[in-house]
Amino acid sequence: QEELFKKLIAHCKEYGFIFPSSEIYDGLSAVYDYGQNGVELKNNIKRYWWDSMVKLNENIVGLDSAIFMHPEIWKASGHVGAFNDPLIDNKDSKKRYRADVLIEDHMAKIEDKIEKEVEKARKRFGETFDEAMFRQTNPRVVENLEKIEDIRKRMVQTLESGDLEGVRQLIVDLEIVCPVSGSRNWTEVRQFNLMFETKVGSVSEDANTIYLRPETAQGIFVNFLNVQKTGRMKLPFGIAQIGKAFRNEIVARQFIFRMREFEQMEMQFFLRPGEEMKWYEYWKEARLRWHKALGTNPAKYRYHNHDKLAHYANAACDIEFEFPFGFKEVEGIHSRTDFDLSNHTKFSGKKLQYFDPETNENYIPFVVETSIGVDRMFLLIMASAYTEEKVDDGERIVLRIPPALAPVKVAVFPLIKKDGLPELARTILNDIKLDFNCHYDEKDTIGKRYRRHDAIGTPYCITVDHQSLEDGMVTIRDRDTMVQERIPIDRIRAIVEEKVSY
Ligand code: ATP
Protein backbone atom coordinates (compact mmCIF):
# COMPACT_ATOMS: atom_id res chain seq x y z
CA GLN A 1 0.00 0.00 0.00
CA GLU A 2 2.82 2.38 0.85
CA GLU A 3 4.48 1.60 -2.46
CA LEU A 4 1.20 2.26 -4.25
CA PHE A 5 0.78 5.57 -2.46
CA LYS A 6 4.24 6.70 -3.60
CA LYS A 7 3.35 5.78 -7.16
CA LEU A 8 0.11 7.72 -6.89
CA ILE A 9 1.96 10.85 -5.72
CA ALA A 10 4.41 10.52 -8.62
CA HIS A 11 1.52 9.99 -11.02
CA CYS A 12 -0.25 13.11 -9.76
CA LYS A 13 2.82 15.13 -10.65
CA GLU A 14 3.68 13.46 -13.94
CA TYR A 15 0.18 13.92 -15.32
CA GLY A 16 -0.42 17.51 -14.23
CA PHE A 17 -2.72 16.91 -11.26
CA ILE A 18 -0.67 18.18 -8.32
CA PHE A 19 2.69 19.94 -8.00
CA PRO A 20 4.52 20.81 -4.79
CA SER A 21 4.14 24.55 -4.18
CA SER A 22 7.11 26.77 -5.09
CA GLU A 23 8.90 23.75 -6.46
CA ILE A 24 11.74 25.63 -8.16
CA TYR A 25 12.57 27.04 -4.71
CA ASP A 26 12.56 23.52 -3.22
CA GLY A 27 8.93 23.64 -2.19
CA LEU A 28 6.93 24.89 0.79
CA SER A 29 5.95 22.23 3.26
CA ALA A 30 2.30 21.09 3.22
CA VAL A 31 1.30 23.44 0.42
CA TYR A 32 0.46 22.20 -3.07
CA ASP A 33 -0.59 23.56 -6.45
CA TYR A 34 -3.15 21.94 -8.71
CA GLY A 35 -2.09 21.52 -12.33
CA GLN A 36 -4.06 21.52 -15.57
CA ASN A 37 -5.85 18.23 -14.85
CA GLY A 38 -5.99 18.70 -11.09
CA VAL A 39 -7.89 21.96 -11.33
CA GLU A 40 -10.53 20.33 -13.55
CA LEU A 41 -11.03 17.42 -11.17
CA LYS A 42 -11.12 19.78 -8.20
CA ASN A 43 -13.71 22.03 -9.88
CA ASN A 44 -15.82 18.97 -10.74
CA ILE A 45 -15.75 17.77 -7.13
CA LYS A 46 -16.85 21.21 -5.97
CA ARG A 47 -19.60 21.34 -8.56
CA TYR A 48 -20.86 17.87 -7.59
CA TRP A 49 -21.07 18.97 -3.96
CA TRP A 50 -22.58 22.37 -4.74
CA ASP A 51 -25.26 20.87 -7.00
CA SER A 52 -26.17 18.25 -4.41
CA MET A 53 -26.57 20.95 -1.75
CA VAL A 54 -27.77 24.14 -3.40
CA LYS A 55 -29.46 22.89 -6.58
CA LEU A 56 -31.09 19.82 -5.13
CA ASN A 57 -32.43 21.37 -1.94
CA GLU A 58 -34.81 24.29 -2.19
CA ASN A 59 -34.00 25.25 1.40
CA ILE A 60 -30.22 25.43 0.99
CA VAL A 61 -28.60 28.55 -0.45
CA GLY A 62 -24.99 29.49 -1.13
CA LEU A 63 -22.59 32.07 0.24
CA ASP A 64 -19.08 33.28 -0.48
CA SER A 65 -17.76 35.14 2.55
CA ALA A 66 -14.31 36.74 2.83
CA ILE A 67 -11.28 34.94 4.22
CA PHE A 68 -10.38 37.92 6.43
CA MET A 69 -12.86 38.51 9.23
CA HIS A 70 -13.09 40.68 12.32
CA PRO A 71 -10.66 39.23 14.91
CA GLU A 72 -13.37 39.13 17.61
CA ILE A 73 -15.06 36.39 15.58
CA TRP A 74 -12.30 33.95 16.48
CA LYS A 75 -12.65 34.76 20.16
CA ALA A 76 -16.39 34.17 19.98
CA SER A 77 -15.96 30.91 18.09
CA GLY A 78 -13.48 29.60 20.66
CA HIS A 79 -10.61 29.37 18.21
CA VAL A 80 -8.35 31.90 19.95
CA GLY A 81 -8.67 30.02 23.24
CA ALA A 82 -9.13 26.43 22.19
CA PHE A 83 -8.01 25.74 18.63
CA ASN A 84 -4.83 24.08 19.81
CA ASP A 85 -3.01 20.88 19.11
CA PRO A 86 -0.85 19.25 21.77
CA LEU A 87 2.71 19.12 20.49
CA ILE A 88 5.62 16.96 21.63
CA ASP A 89 9.23 16.65 20.46
CA ASN A 90 11.42 13.63 20.51
CA LYS A 91 14.79 14.65 21.93
CA ASP A 92 16.74 11.92 20.12
CA SER A 93 15.34 12.11 16.63
CA LYS A 94 14.48 15.83 16.93
CA LYS A 95 11.17 14.96 15.31
CA ARG A 96 8.02 16.86 16.23
CA TYR A 97 4.71 15.06 16.71
CA ARG A 98 1.12 15.90 17.43
CA ALA A 99 0.64 14.08 20.71
CA ASP A 100 -2.90 12.89 19.94
CA VAL A 101 -1.89 11.63 16.48
CA LEU A 102 1.09 9.81 17.95
CA ILE A 103 -1.20 8.08 20.43
CA GLU A 104 -3.57 7.14 17.62
CA ASP A 105 -0.65 5.65 15.70
CA HIS A 106 0.08 3.47 18.71
CA MET A 107 -3.52 2.33 18.82
CA ALA A 108 -3.42 1.54 15.11
CA LYS A 109 -0.34 -0.59 15.69
CA ILE A 110 -2.09 -2.55 18.42
CA GLU A 111 -5.14 -2.94 16.20
CA ASP A 112 -2.83 -4.35 13.53
CA LYS A 113 -1.62 -6.96 15.98
CA ILE A 114 -5.21 -7.96 16.66
CA GLU A 115 -5.95 -8.23 12.93
CA LYS A 116 -2.93 -10.47 12.42
CA GLU A 117 -4.04 -12.73 15.27
CA VAL A 118 -7.54 -12.98 13.75
CA GLU A 119 -6.16 -13.72 10.28
CA LYS A 120 -3.92 -16.48 11.62
CA ALA A 121 -6.86 -18.14 13.34
CA ARG A 122 -9.06 -17.77 10.27
CA LYS A 123 -6.48 -19.64 8.21
CA ARG A 124 -6.21 -22.39 10.83
CA PHE A 125 -9.91 -23.00 11.41
CA GLY A 126 -11.17 -22.30 7.89
CA GLU A 127 -14.92 -22.26 7.44
CA THR A 128 -15.73 -23.09 11.02
CA PHE A 129 -14.07 -19.89 12.23
CA ASP A 130 -16.31 -17.63 14.30
CA GLU A 131 -14.61 -14.23 14.40
CA ALA A 132 -16.87 -12.63 16.99
CA MET A 133 -16.36 -15.52 19.40
CA PHE A 134 -12.62 -15.48 18.79
CA ARG A 135 -12.38 -11.76 19.57
CA GLN A 136 -14.22 -12.30 22.85
CA THR A 137 -12.28 -15.33 24.02
CA ASN A 138 -8.72 -15.34 22.68
CA PRO A 139 -6.55 -14.05 25.54
CA ARG A 140 -4.08 -12.13 23.35
CA VAL A 141 -6.86 -10.39 21.43
CA VAL A 142 -8.82 -9.60 24.58
CA GLU A 143 -5.71 -8.20 26.23
CA ASN A 144 -4.94 -5.95 23.26
CA LEU A 145 -8.54 -4.77 23.02
CA GLU A 146 -8.43 -3.86 26.70
CA LYS A 147 -5.21 -1.98 26.10
CA ILE A 148 -6.80 0.10 23.36
CA GLU A 149 -9.84 0.80 25.49
CA ASP A 150 -7.60 1.93 28.33
CA ILE A 151 -5.43 4.15 26.11
CA ARG A 152 -8.51 5.77 24.62
CA LYS A 153 -9.93 6.52 28.05
CA ARG A 154 -6.68 7.96 29.33
CA MET A 155 -6.23 10.06 26.19
CA VAL A 156 -9.71 11.55 26.43
CA GLN A 157 -9.34 12.25 30.15
CA THR A 158 -5.91 13.83 29.92
CA LEU A 159 -6.64 15.93 26.83
CA GLU A 160 -9.96 17.12 28.17
CA SER A 161 -8.64 18.10 31.56
CA GLY A 162 -5.64 19.82 29.96
CA ASP A 163 -3.33 17.47 31.88
CA LEU A 164 -0.43 17.75 29.46
CA GLU A 165 1.96 15.87 31.74
CA GLY A 166 -0.56 13.00 31.71
CA VAL A 167 -0.46 12.97 27.90
CA ARG A 168 3.34 12.82 27.97
CA GLN A 169 3.25 9.95 30.46
CA LEU A 170 0.83 8.06 28.22
CA ILE A 171 3.25 8.37 25.28
CA VAL A 172 6.18 7.25 27.41
CA ASP A 173 4.19 4.20 28.62
CA LEU A 174 3.08 3.35 25.09
CA GLU A 175 6.61 3.46 23.72
CA ILE A 176 7.48 0.74 26.21
CA VAL A 177 4.62 -1.65 25.40
CA CYS A 178 4.40 -0.94 21.68
CA PRO A 179 7.11 1.28 20.17
CA VAL A 180 6.19 3.51 17.27
CA SER A 181 8.94 6.11 17.22
CA GLY A 182 11.57 3.76 18.63
CA SER A 183 12.66 6.29 21.21
CA ARG A 184 11.69 7.14 24.79
CA ASN A 185 13.18 10.56 25.26
CA TRP A 186 10.40 13.15 25.09
CA THR A 187 10.02 16.84 25.84
CA GLU A 188 7.00 18.16 27.71
CA VAL A 189 3.73 18.59 25.79
CA ARG A 190 2.83 22.16 24.74
CA GLN A 191 -0.38 23.56 23.32
CA PHE A 192 0.06 25.13 19.92
CA ASN A 193 -2.56 27.39 18.28
CA LEU A 194 -3.17 26.48 14.66
CA MET A 195 -4.33 29.86 13.38
CA PHE A 196 -2.12 31.90 11.09
CA GLU A 197 -1.86 35.56 12.01
CA THR A 198 -1.23 38.55 9.84
CA LYS A 199 -1.51 42.34 10.14
CA VAL A 200 -4.05 44.64 8.60
CA GLY A 201 -2.97 48.13 7.48
CA SER A 202 0.41 49.72 7.90
CA VAL A 203 0.70 49.98 11.69
CA SER A 204 1.98 46.82 13.30
CA GLU A 205 0.17 46.92 16.60
CA ASP A 206 -1.61 44.07 18.29
CA ALA A 207 -4.94 45.69 17.57
CA ASN A 208 -4.31 45.15 13.87
CA THR A 209 -3.73 41.42 14.13
CA ILE A 210 -6.14 39.37 12.12
CA TYR A 211 -6.29 35.67 11.33
CA LEU A 212 -6.53 33.61 8.19
CA ARG A 213 -9.75 31.67 8.75
CA PRO A 214 -9.18 28.08 9.94
CA GLU A 215 -12.69 27.08 8.79
CA THR A 216 -15.31 28.59 6.50
CA ALA A 217 -18.19 27.99 8.92
CA GLN A 218 -17.83 31.26 10.86
CA GLY A 219 -18.47 33.27 7.68
CA ILE A 220 -21.81 31.49 7.51
CA PHE A 221 -22.71 32.14 11.15
CA VAL A 222 -21.99 35.86 11.03
CA ASN A 223 -24.11 36.15 7.85
CA PHE A 224 -26.96 34.12 9.28
CA LEU A 225 -29.33 37.08 9.62
CA ASN A 226 -28.32 38.64 6.29
CA VAL A 227 -29.19 35.49 4.40
CA GLN A 228 -32.23 34.58 6.45
CA LYS A 229 -33.81 38.03 6.08
CA THR A 230 -32.92 38.80 2.45
CA GLY A 231 -33.74 35.26 1.34
CA ARG A 232 -36.85 35.15 3.56
CA MET A 233 -35.68 31.73 4.68
CA LYS A 234 -37.78 29.63 7.03
CA LEU A 235 -36.35 27.04 9.40
CA PRO A 236 -35.06 24.51 8.74
CA PHE A 237 -32.70 25.90 6.10
CA GLY A 238 -29.06 25.63 5.16
CA ILE A 239 -26.23 27.87 3.96
CA ALA A 240 -23.48 26.26 1.91
CA GLN A 241 -20.03 27.61 1.23
CA ILE A 242 -16.86 26.48 -0.51
CA GLY A 243 -13.62 28.25 0.28
CA LYS A 244 -10.06 28.26 1.45
CA ALA A 245 -9.10 27.63 5.06
CA PHE A 246 -5.67 27.78 6.70
CA ARG A 247 -4.19 25.83 9.59
CA ASN A 248 -0.63 25.87 10.80
CA GLU A 249 -0.57 22.08 11.10
CA ILE A 250 2.29 20.81 13.24
CA VAL A 251 2.86 17.64 11.35
CA ALA A 252 2.11 17.89 7.69
CA ARG A 253 1.88 14.39 6.35
CA GLN A 254 0.43 12.17 3.70
CA PHE A 255 0.54 14.44 0.69
CA ILE A 256 -2.62 16.53 0.33
CA PHE A 257 -4.34 14.80 3.27
CA ARG A 258 -3.13 17.40 5.76
CA MET A 259 -2.22 20.76 4.27
CA ARG A 260 -1.57 24.21 5.67
CA GLU A 261 -3.70 25.85 2.99
CA PHE A 262 -6.70 23.82 1.91
CA GLU A 263 -10.29 24.12 0.81
CA GLN A 264 -13.49 23.21 2.62
CA MET A 265 -17.07 22.61 1.54
CA GLU A 266 -19.28 23.34 4.52
CA MET A 267 -23.01 23.49 5.02
CA GLN A 268 -24.64 24.83 8.16
CA PHE A 269 -28.20 23.65 8.61
CA PHE A 270 -30.24 25.91 10.91
CA LEU A 271 -33.10 24.24 12.75
CA ARG A 272 -35.50 24.35 15.66
CA PRO A 273 -33.94 23.53 19.07
CA GLY A 274 -34.92 20.00 20.00
CA GLU A 275 -34.86 18.78 16.40
CA GLU A 276 -31.09 18.52 16.20
CA MET A 277 -30.81 14.76 16.64
CA LYS A 278 -33.31 14.13 13.85
CA TRP A 279 -31.35 16.34 11.46
CA TYR A 280 -28.02 15.06 12.66
CA GLU A 281 -29.08 11.52 11.74
CA TYR A 282 -30.55 12.78 8.47
CA TRP A 283 -27.33 14.48 7.34
CA LYS A 284 -25.16 11.66 8.56
CA GLU A 285 -26.97 9.31 6.21
CA ALA A 286 -27.38 11.78 3.36
CA ARG A 287 -23.68 12.54 3.28
CA LEU A 288 -22.65 8.88 3.14
CA ARG A 289 -25.17 8.37 0.32
CA TRP A 290 -23.52 11.25 -1.55
CA HIS A 291 -20.15 9.52 -1.35
CA LYS A 292 -21.49 6.16 -2.38
CA ALA A 293 -23.43 7.62 -5.32
CA LEU A 294 -20.07 8.27 -6.95
CA GLY A 295 -19.58 4.56 -7.38
CA THR A 296 -16.50 4.34 -5.15
CA ASN A 297 -16.14 1.06 -3.26
CA PRO A 298 -18.75 1.20 -0.43
CA ALA A 299 -16.71 -1.21 1.73
CA LYS A 300 -14.05 1.47 2.06
CA TYR A 301 -16.33 3.80 4.01
CA ARG A 302 -17.25 3.72 7.67
CA TYR A 303 -18.60 6.06 10.35
CA HIS A 304 -16.55 6.98 13.36
CA ASN A 305 -18.69 8.35 16.18
CA HIS A 306 -16.83 10.71 18.47
CA ASP A 307 -16.56 10.01 22.20
CA LYS A 308 -14.56 13.16 22.70
CA LEU A 309 -16.65 16.10 21.55
CA ALA A 310 -15.31 19.47 20.48
CA HIS A 311 -16.20 22.46 22.66
CA TYR A 312 -19.15 23.36 20.41
CA ALA A 313 -20.78 19.97 19.75
CA ASN A 314 -23.34 17.70 21.39
CA ALA A 315 -22.97 14.93 18.80
CA ALA A 316 -20.35 14.37 16.13
CA CYS A 317 -19.15 11.74 13.75
CA ASP A 318 -16.70 11.41 10.91
CA ILE A 319 -17.13 9.66 7.64
CA GLU A 320 -13.91 7.75 7.23
CA PHE A 321 -12.41 6.32 4.08
CA GLU A 322 -9.77 3.65 3.76
CA PHE A 323 -6.88 5.61 2.28
CA PRO A 324 -3.66 3.76 1.37
CA PHE A 325 -2.45 4.69 4.88
CA GLY A 326 -5.54 3.40 6.69
CA PHE A 327 -9.06 4.55 7.60
CA LYS A 328 -9.05 8.35 8.02
CA GLU A 329 -11.58 11.16 8.26
CA VAL A 330 -12.75 12.71 5.03
CA GLU A 331 -15.82 14.52 6.34
CA GLY A 332 -17.28 15.57 9.68
CA ILE A 333 -20.94 15.88 10.67
CA HIS A 334 -21.42 17.89 13.82
CA SER A 335 -24.40 18.93 15.87
CA ARG A 336 -23.13 22.36 16.98
CA THR A 337 -26.13 23.31 19.15
CA ASP A 338 -26.62 27.11 19.39
CA PHE A 339 -23.00 27.52 20.48
CA ASP A 340 -21.85 29.72 17.59
CA LEU A 341 -24.92 31.95 17.17
CA SER A 342 -25.17 32.46 20.95
CA ASN A 343 -21.54 33.41 21.27
CA HIS A 344 -21.69 35.80 18.33
CA THR A 345 -24.74 37.35 19.96
CA LYS A 346 -22.71 37.83 23.15
CA PHE A 347 -19.56 39.14 21.48
CA SER A 348 -21.18 41.37 18.84
CA GLY A 349 -24.15 42.58 20.86
CA LYS A 350 -26.41 41.82 17.84
CA LYS A 351 -29.26 39.39 18.44
CA LEU A 352 -28.85 36.48 16.04
CA GLN A 353 -32.38 35.24 16.55
CA TYR A 354 -35.10 33.80 14.40
CA PHE A 355 -38.76 34.72 14.63
CA ASP A 356 -40.75 31.55 14.13
CA PRO A 357 -44.08 32.47 12.49
CA GLU A 358 -45.53 29.08 13.40
CA THR A 359 -44.97 29.35 17.13
CA ASN A 360 -44.77 33.16 17.40
CA GLU A 361 -41.50 32.84 19.30
CA ASN A 362 -38.03 34.32 18.99
CA TYR A 363 -35.15 31.92 19.54
CA ILE A 364 -31.59 31.12 18.55
CA PRO A 365 -31.61 28.25 16.05
CA PHE A 366 -29.55 25.10 16.55
CA VAL A 367 -27.14 23.98 13.86
CA VAL A 368 -26.06 20.72 12.28
CA GLU A 369 -23.06 21.08 9.99
CA THR A 370 -21.48 18.95 7.33
CA SER A 371 -17.85 19.73 6.62
CA ILE A 372 -15.67 18.11 4.01
CA GLY A 373 -12.23 18.94 2.67
CA VAL A 374 -12.03 19.35 -1.11
CA ASP A 375 -8.42 18.20 -1.15
CA ARG A 376 -9.11 15.12 0.95
CA MET A 377 -11.97 14.25 -1.36
CA PHE A 378 -9.58 14.72 -4.28
CA LEU A 379 -7.12 12.30 -2.67
CA LEU A 380 -9.95 9.84 -2.02
CA ILE A 381 -10.97 9.92 -5.68
CA MET A 382 -7.39 9.54 -6.91
CA ALA A 383 -6.60 6.74 -4.47
CA SER A 384 -9.66 4.75 -5.45
CA ALA A 385 -9.22 5.46 -9.18
CA TYR A 386 -5.56 4.55 -9.58
CA THR A 387 -5.28 1.11 -11.20
CA GLU A 388 -2.40 -0.77 -12.75
CA GLU A 389 -3.51 -3.60 -14.98
CA LYS A 390 -2.30 -6.07 -17.56
CA VAL A 391 -3.64 -5.62 -21.05
CA ASP A 392 -2.95 -7.42 -24.35
CA ASP A 393 0.01 -5.28 -25.32
CA GLY A 394 1.57 -4.98 -21.85
CA GLU A 395 0.44 -2.91 -18.88
CA ARG A 396 -1.56 0.21 -18.46
CA ILE A 397 -2.22 2.70 -15.70
CA VAL A 398 -5.82 3.79 -15.76
CA LEU A 399 -7.57 6.27 -13.49
CA ARG A 400 -11.08 4.98 -12.98
CA ILE A 401 -12.35 8.39 -11.92
CA PRO A 402 -16.16 8.57 -11.77
CA PRO A 403 -16.95 9.88 -15.28
CA ALA A 404 -18.86 12.87 -13.90
CA LEU A 405 -15.68 14.05 -12.18
CA ALA A 406 -13.12 13.19 -14.88
CA PRO A 407 -10.97 16.21 -15.86
CA VAL A 408 -11.35 15.51 -19.57
CA LYS A 409 -14.55 13.86 -20.77
CA VAL A 410 -13.72 13.22 -24.41
CA ALA A 411 -10.48 13.07 -26.39
CA VAL A 412 -10.74 13.40 -30.16
CA PHE A 413 -8.02 11.93 -32.40
CA PRO A 414 -7.52 11.99 -36.16
CA LEU A 415 -6.02 8.61 -37.12
CA ILE A 416 -3.31 10.42 -39.11
CA LYS A 417 -2.32 14.05 -39.54
CA LYS A 418 -3.51 14.45 -43.15
CA ASP A 419 -6.20 13.67 -45.72
CA GLY A 420 -8.71 15.97 -44.03
CA LEU A 421 -8.90 13.86 -40.85
CA PRO A 422 -7.61 16.62 -38.52
CA GLU A 423 -10.22 19.00 -39.96
CA LEU A 424 -13.09 16.59 -39.31
CA ALA A 425 -11.75 15.83 -35.83
CA ARG A 426 -11.65 19.56 -35.05
CA THR A 427 -15.18 20.06 -36.36
CA ILE A 428 -16.40 17.32 -34.00
CA LEU A 429 -14.47 18.84 -31.11
CA ASN A 430 -15.71 22.37 -31.76
CA ASP A 431 -19.26 21.10 -31.75
CA ILE A 432 -19.07 19.64 -28.22
CA LYS A 433 -16.31 21.58 -26.49
CA LEU A 434 -18.65 23.96 -24.68
CA ASP A 435 -20.67 21.03 -23.32
CA PHE A 436 -17.77 18.91 -22.12
CA ASN A 437 -14.12 19.43 -21.39
CA CYS A 438 -12.43 17.98 -24.52
CA HIS A 439 -8.89 17.35 -25.73
CA TYR A 440 -7.56 17.21 -29.24
CA ASP A 441 -4.52 14.98 -29.75
CA GLU A 442 -2.79 14.02 -32.99
CA LYS A 443 0.69 13.03 -31.76
CA ASP A 444 2.00 9.42 -31.66
CA THR A 445 0.16 6.18 -32.37
CA ILE A 446 -3.48 5.75 -31.39
CA GLY A 447 -2.34 3.20 -28.76
CA LYS A 448 -0.10 5.75 -27.07
CA ARG A 449 -2.83 8.36 -27.18
CA TYR A 450 -5.21 5.89 -25.47
CA ARG A 451 -2.61 5.28 -22.74
CA ARG A 452 -2.15 9.01 -22.14
CA HIS A 453 -5.87 9.44 -21.68
CA ASP A 454 -6.24 6.31 -19.53
CA ALA A 455 -3.63 7.86 -17.26
CA ILE A 456 -5.75 10.98 -16.68
CA GLY A 457 -9.06 9.12 -16.56
CA THR A 458 -10.74 10.30 -19.79
CA PRO A 459 -13.91 8.19 -20.12
CA TYR A 460 -14.10 8.30 -23.93
CA CYS A 461 -11.66 8.57 -26.83
CA ILE A 462 -12.99 9.18 -30.32
CA THR A 463 -10.99 8.37 -33.43
CA VAL A 464 -11.69 9.81 -36.87
CA ASP A 465 -10.44 7.69 -39.79
CA HIS A 466 -10.79 7.68 -43.59
CA GLN A 467 -14.03 5.74 -43.41
CA SER A 468 -15.48 8.55 -41.26
CA LEU A 469 -15.20 10.96 -44.20
CA GLU A 470 -17.47 8.68 -46.17
CA ASP A 471 -20.02 7.31 -43.69
CA GLY A 472 -20.00 9.92 -40.90
CA MET A 473 -19.13 7.24 -38.33
CA VAL A 474 -16.30 7.34 -35.78
CA THR A 475 -14.76 4.86 -33.33
CA ILE A 476 -15.58 5.50 -29.68
CA ARG A 477 -13.47 3.69 -27.09
CA ASP A 478 -14.48 3.15 -23.49
CA ARG A 479 -11.80 3.80 -20.84
CA ASP A 480 -12.81 0.96 -18.51
CA THR A 481 -13.79 -1.86 -20.86
CA MET A 482 -11.51 -0.71 -23.71
CA VAL A 483 -14.34 -1.80 -26.04
CA GLN A 484 -14.44 0.10 -29.33
CA GLU A 485 -17.63 0.79 -31.25
CA ARG A 486 -18.57 2.55 -34.46
CA ILE A 487 -21.14 5.29 -33.89
CA PRO A 488 -22.54 8.12 -36.02
CA ILE A 489 -20.99 11.51 -35.29
CA ASP A 490 -24.35 13.01 -34.37
CA ARG A 491 -24.76 10.54 -31.49
CA ILE A 492 -21.51 11.52 -29.72
CA ARG A 493 -23.09 14.20 -27.58
CA ALA A 494 -25.88 11.95 -26.29
CA ILE A 495 -23.55 9.05 -25.51
CA VAL A 496 -21.10 11.20 -23.59
CA GLU A 497 -23.89 13.06 -21.82
CA GLU A 498 -25.39 9.81 -20.60
CA LYS A 499 -22.05 8.64 -19.22
CA VAL A 500 -20.92 11.82 -17.47
CA SER A 501 -24.16 13.18 -16.04
CA TYR A 502 -25.17 12.63 -12.42
P1 ATP B 1 -8.22 16.31 11.54
O1 ATP B 1 -8.68 15.59 12.78
O2 ATP B 1 -7.85 15.41 10.40
O3 ATP B 1 -7.22 17.39 11.80
P2 ATP B 1 -10.46 17.96 11.93
O4 ATP B 1 -11.34 17.05 12.69
O5 ATP B 1 -9.69 19.02 12.59
O6 ATP B 1 -9.47 17.08 11.01
P3 ATP B 1 -12.52 19.57 10.85
O7 ATP B 1 -12.12 20.75 11.62
O8 ATP B 1 -13.74 18.82 11.25
O9 ATP B 1 -11.28 18.57 10.75
O10 ATP B 1 -12.57 19.97 9.31
C1 ATP B 1 -13.51 19.42 8.43
C2 ATP B 1 -12.85 18.79 7.22
O11 ATP B 1 -11.88 19.68 6.64
C3 ATP B 1 -12.08 17.52 7.52
O12 ATP B 1 -12.94 16.41 7.52
C4 ATP B 1 -11.10 17.46 6.38
O13 ATP B 1 -11.69 16.86 5.23
C5 ATP B 1 -10.82 18.91 6.08
N1 ATP B 1 -9.54 19.31 6.68
C6 ATP B 1 -9.32 19.70 7.96
N2 ATP B 1 -8.04 20.02 8.15
C7 ATP B 1 -7.41 19.82 6.95
C8 ATP B 1 -6.07 19.98 6.49
N3 ATP B 1 -5.11 20.42 7.29
N4 ATP B 1 -5.79 19.68 5.20
C9 ATP B 1 -6.76 19.24 4.37
N5 ATP B 1 -8.04 19.09 4.75
C10 ATP B 1 -8.37 19.36 6.02
TrEMBL record:
The organism's lineage?
Answer: Bacteria, Pseudomonadati, Bacteroidota, Bacteroidia, Bacteroidales
Q: Which UniProt keywords apply?
A: Aminoacyl-tRNA synthetase, ATP-binding, Cytoplasm, Ligase, Nucleotide-binding, Protein biosynthesis
Recorded protein name is: Glycine--tRNA ligase
Q: Which InterPro entries match?
A: aa-tRNA-synt_IIb (IPR002314), aa-tRNA-synth_II (IPR006195), aa-tRNA-synth_II/BPL/LPL (IPR045864), Anticodon-bd (IPR004154), Anticodon-bd_dom_sf (IPR036621), Gly-tRNA_synthase/POLG2 (IPR027031), Gly_tRNA_ligase_bac (IPR022961), GlyRS-like_core (IPR033731)
Name the catalysed reactions: tRNA(Gly) + glycine + ATP = glycyl-tRNA(Gly) + AMP + diphosphate
Q: Which gene encodes it?
A: glyQS
Signal sequence segment: none
What this protein is reported to do is described as: Catalyzes the attachment of glycine to tRNA(Gly).
Q: Name one GO cellular component term.
A: cytoplasm
Limits of the Aminoacyl-transfer RNA synthetases class-II family profile domain: 151-407
One Pfam family name is HGTP_anticodon
Q: Which Gene3D superfamilies match?
A: 3.30.40.230, Anticodon-binding domain (3.40.50.800), Bira Bifunctional Protein, Domain 2 (3.30.930.10)
The record lists substrate as bound by: 98, 215, 262-266, 369-373
Q: Which GO terms describe its biological process?
A: diadenosine tetraphosphate biosynthetic process; glycyl-tRNA aminoacylation
